[in-house]
Amino acid sequence: MFFIMSQTRVHLKITGYVQGVFYRATTRETALRLGLKGWVRNRSDGSVEAVVEGDDSSVDSFMEWCKKGPPGATIHDMEVRREECTGEFTSFQIRY
Fold first, then answer.
1. Residues noted as catalytic
2. Dihedral angle, C-alpha 23, 24, 30, 33, nearest 10 °
């Protein structure tokens, strides 16, 4: 019997004290550990933006982690926009 896991894609914007605290690097580590694909980057307004695709439960775990972030981060808000999965990513990258 085969079970097909439902795939989810979310586009996140995380605001607060999220730059200069290794947020991108630890976000990438977390995504890779959870088997997710996509990217993360700093934005010029001081926020962090990420797009991630993967199975529902892993994406949920990833979003829970993003609400806390690494030690030193202070999260004020996280905007979540659900999108259609495209399967365009082969890994999880830090974008510059």
1. 24, 42
2. -150
